[in-house]
Q: What sequence folds into this?
């Protein structure tokens, strides 16, 4: 008998492994292996095709990308000790390249470029220098994108979910319509909106002019450094809000009707019902929605690829777009991998944050 | 019904309709514009005529779009890549989920934990090293031996077959099925594979639909980042990359709108027919957290 039992366990071991193996092997080869390779490659100077052997370079790629220098400049002074002033009355500052091209006197600024500058009191000027300005813009744009899109999209989605959750005739038609953009490819959506945002014949300008009775001045939404990223944000919210509406909706529908009846008998106002009945039950849904939106926002790519390719003046660069530009277009596998690793660390921190928030309740 | 309730109801519907228009207008604009010649398209887009099929309406943009690009070819590529991936994914992922749920084997816990951990790895973060991998993988196909997977169908299929979400969806569904079913058929002498094929899978219709829809949306709609990197030859290009055709030499917006309509309308129709299933499958990704 024991022999039979051992045999049965062995058989089940074999059957279990062989059924799970194909999928697991694929996950291993095309997900886990490249994941660890990203870490390894980011510490080398690997290129897609290269005659030179690959070398280990430590954290050079990261140092290169994240290298920052702070430079405080005083305005230029003329012979009499007065501050030099330009035609518009603003003080004139020394050229940044005086510092960044001078290895002997300012080794800490060498080869860095200006990222942005902030005026300080007493006419001083703080210049933030970066080793890799394009990467810094990609990083800050991606974070800004997540920071702004996340609350707005989650808020709109909740509003829509509450609207759709009403017992009205034909409400399913509206649910279907609100969700429709989700099934359309972001590539298609981006191209459509490129047309809508157009500065000359764009639909958005036309509509705004019509509703403002001609007061609105047409804007080249995607051609302007100040409006390009907000335009992409607005479009992304338009496309994705239905997705999160559905998740909110499934959260709303888990709330027992009896809770609402109690609130009604107690004479609660509509706001009180939402505040004390609906919202507390949605806590975990809220965390989930925020996390999904943040992760989607971090991987911002097709919009940038189709609409602006990072421009104008790098105002719409994103991490994934830069990873593709470097890893594929410039065949710089190690540089692209380093960006991927940073991106993953961002995603991981959000995920751990979610774990922390949801654990608290249990 | 009292008057103030009627007004309240009317206002609610007005709000619902107003919001619906925000979601519909770009789609309507796409479709209507695809019927207009370029000159009229550009003129109309500065007024509400942009949403009306008026003026010089024809399917000319569609015929010239087909003349300009091998559209059937792109659609065939996309449908084939998406279709094969879905079929293989459903089979292999459900098979491994079956093994995770119903069988006991050494190392199961560890392997399952590792698979689940890959949840939080977005594809975008592994794309670059994956490019290096597929660039160096050998392949034996109809054209003989090749030392790289670049420029092929399988490079767009095989890496996407297995994923944590699909496996997890099946595992969750299988866990709720009665275990007695499996034990009964095992006692009747069925092999494990027979139990999977004849007992479990026939009960799994809803989850198969959910997994298939999610995979479809992921594959058909997102064919941009990866194909841009691994497919330079147009023979293997999916519909999203086919767009590049319309931006070479004198861009005709009418043709672009026609192409966008061609690649979007089937998905929208598919969605309208199966909307309950579509929405349910998106809602089911909510469980994943």
A:
């Amino acid at each position: 008998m024991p022999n039979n039992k051992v045999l049965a366990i062995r058989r089940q071991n074999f059957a279990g492994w062989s059924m799970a193996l194909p999928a697991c092997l694929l996950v291993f080869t095309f997900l886990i292996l490249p994941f660890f390779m990203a870490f390894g490659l980011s510490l080398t100077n690997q290129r897609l095709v290269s005659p030179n052997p690959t070398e280990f370079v430590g954290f050079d790629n990261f140092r290169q990308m994240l290298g920052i220098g702070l430079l405080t400049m005083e305005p230029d002074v003329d012979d009499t000790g007065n501050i030099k002033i330009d035609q518009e009355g603003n003080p004139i500052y020394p050229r940044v390249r005086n510092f960044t091209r001078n290895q002997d006197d300012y080794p800490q600024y060498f080869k860095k470029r200006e990222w942005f500058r902030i005026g300080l009191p007493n006419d001083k000027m703080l210049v933030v220098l970066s080793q890799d300005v394009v990467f810094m813009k990609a990083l800050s744009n991606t974070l800004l994108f997540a920071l702004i899109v996340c609350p707005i999209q989650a808020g709109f989605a909740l509003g829509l979910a509450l609207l759709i959750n009403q017992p009205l005739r034909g409400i399913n038609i509206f649910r279907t319509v609100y969700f429709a953009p989700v099934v359309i490819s972001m590539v298609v959506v981006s191209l459509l909106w490129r047309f809508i945002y157009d500065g000359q014949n764009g639909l958005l300008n036309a509509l705004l002019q019509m509703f403002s009775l001609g007061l609105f001045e047409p804007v080249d939404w995607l051609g302007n450094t100040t409006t390009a990223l907000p335009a992409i944000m607005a479009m992304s919210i338009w496309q994705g809000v239905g997705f999160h509406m559905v998740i909110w909706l499934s959260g709303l529908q888990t709330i027992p009707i009896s809770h609402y009846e109690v609130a009604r008998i107690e004479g609660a106002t509509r706001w009180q019902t939402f505040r004390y009945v609906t919202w507390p039950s949605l806590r975990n849904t809220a965390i989930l929605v925020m996390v999904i939106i943040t992760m989607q926002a971090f991987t911002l790519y097709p919009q940038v690829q189709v609409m602006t390719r990072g421009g104008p003046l790098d105002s719409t660069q994103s991490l994934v777009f830069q990873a593709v530009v470097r890893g594929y277009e410039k065949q710089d596998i190690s540089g692209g991998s380093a960006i991927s690793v940073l991106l993953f660390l961002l995603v991981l921190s959000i995920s751990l944050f979610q774990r922390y928030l949801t654990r608290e309740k249990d | 019904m009292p008057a103030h309730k009627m007004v309240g109801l009317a206002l609610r519907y007005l709000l619902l309709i107003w919001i619906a228009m925000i979601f519909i207008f770009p789609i309507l604009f796409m479709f209507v514009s695809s019927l207009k010649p370029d000159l009229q398209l550009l003129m109309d887009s500065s007024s509400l005529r942009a949403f009306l099929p008026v003026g010089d309406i024809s399917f000319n943009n569609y015929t010239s779009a087909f003349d300009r690009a091998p559209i059937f070819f792109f659609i065939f590529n996309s449908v084939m890549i998406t279709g094969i991936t879905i079929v293989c994914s459903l089979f292999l992922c459900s098979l491994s989920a079956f093994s995770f749920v119903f069988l006991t084997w050494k190392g199961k816990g560890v392997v399952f934990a590792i698979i689940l951990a890959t949840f939080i790895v977005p594809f975008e973060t592994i794309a670059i090293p994956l490019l290096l991998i597929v660039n160096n993988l050998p392949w034996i196909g109809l054209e003989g031996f090749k030392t790289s997977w670049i420029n092929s169908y399988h490079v767009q299929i095989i890496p996407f077959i297995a994923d944590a979400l699909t496996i997890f969806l099946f595992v969750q569904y299988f866990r709720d099925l009665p275990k007695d079913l499996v034990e009964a058929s095992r006692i009747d002498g069925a092999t494990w594979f027979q139990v999977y094929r004849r007992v479990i899978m026939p009960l799994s219709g809803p989850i198969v639909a959910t997994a298939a829809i999610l995979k479809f949306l992921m594959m058909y709609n997102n064919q941009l980042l990866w194909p841009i990197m691994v497919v330079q030859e147009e023979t293997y290009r999916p519909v999203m990359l086919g767009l590049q055709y319309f931006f070479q030499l004198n861009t005709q917006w009418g043709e672009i709108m026609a192409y966008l309509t061609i690649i979007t309308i089937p998905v929208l129709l598919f969605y309208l027919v199966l909307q309950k299933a579509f929405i349910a499958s998106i809602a089911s990704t909510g469980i994943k957290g």
